[in-house]
Amino acid sequence: MRVSTSQLYANTIQTMNTQQSLLTQLQQEASTNIKLATPADDPLGAARAVQISQNQAALSQFATNQQAATSSLGLEDSTLGSVTSVLQDINSLLVQAGTGTLTDSNRQALAKELQGDRDTLMSLANTTDGAGNFIFSGFQAGSPPFSNQSGGGVTYTGDTGTRMIQVTGTSSIASGDNGASVFLSVLGGLAQPVPAGAATNTGTGTIVNPVTISTTGAPTNNNPYSITFSSDPATGALQYEVDDTSTTPPTQISVNQPFTADQPINLGPGMSVQISGTPAPGDSFTVTPAAKGNTDVFSTLDTVIAALQVPAQNNPTATATVTTALTTASTELANTMTNVSTLQASVGGREQQLKALSTVNQTQALQGSSDLSDIVQANPAEVLSQFTLVQTALNAAEVTFAKVVQGSDLFSVISP
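The structure assignment produced for this chain is given below.
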């Protein structure tokens, strides 16, 4: 194969130009420490770099979301802890109010303490975060969720929405709980039925102890009951009737049953209640499933505060009314405490979940940074090695080409 002089020159010059271009590229990589400056440098690497960069941006946003959710849940956790402390103090005051030796002034003093705790509870229910958002208002973060009603209880102006934050590519987490679920709700499966006495009772009958549940999960435990007292027309003895008031008209469970104080009164096959003292004919009591009765803890407090302020000293009927009111309030308060404790446990679980997700997110972000660096960043040792190799090859090519050109010069072989 014959190679012309012009072809030899062209091929050699092209080779040296390529090597010179590579040297320039390596010099740039050495000075900037970047080997992927444009997609043309490495199309496949550039595509991979774009993909990694997008994933890194998503991980960065997830990290921000996780931090925001952690902050929100931390504030809710702390607030619910304070709520629990206030509820425990209220419970202690209710126990103290049940002491039989208290005077009217003693009960009124306790009512004032309970009012102070209620005010504290209201303040906690309207807690705001650092940005002024109300944490228990659902989606209505800009306005206080709770306000007092003139007749007792509260008005909830928030909503039942739950603020969700996306914390990974496939999952979101609740960053808070609305006020209705905290202060106006009970857990049906864990809450105790609530006993109460009619305001018109004239006897000394009281419900002192909680309702006894003998068969957990009995369907009839979810029904409301009434216990009405009357006198036997023939003997004048006190008797009672138990009705299931979940139907219209009410369904009789038992009728004309002789009453004995402190003996269990069966409410269907699953539970019973004890009534102490001596009810008067016409007196009545109720037992209501927690979720179907009053679930407003503020209303509970308003009712028991009002009951403690009514003079009852040396008045057996009024004393019986206060005693039953305290039992009702204690049961409703216990149901609220169970609800708040369960919610706080849920908040703690979400905080632990976020902690685990944050660790995974950080690991993925570090791996992504490493992968992106491998694609984009130049390796100084590798660049120097390649630069030396190409420079040596270029120098060798230049020397060789010079000798070839000198040896093939036509005039060098022409004799003078």
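Interim note for the steering committee: The first helix runs from residue 5 to 32. The chain is about 50% helix and 15% strand.
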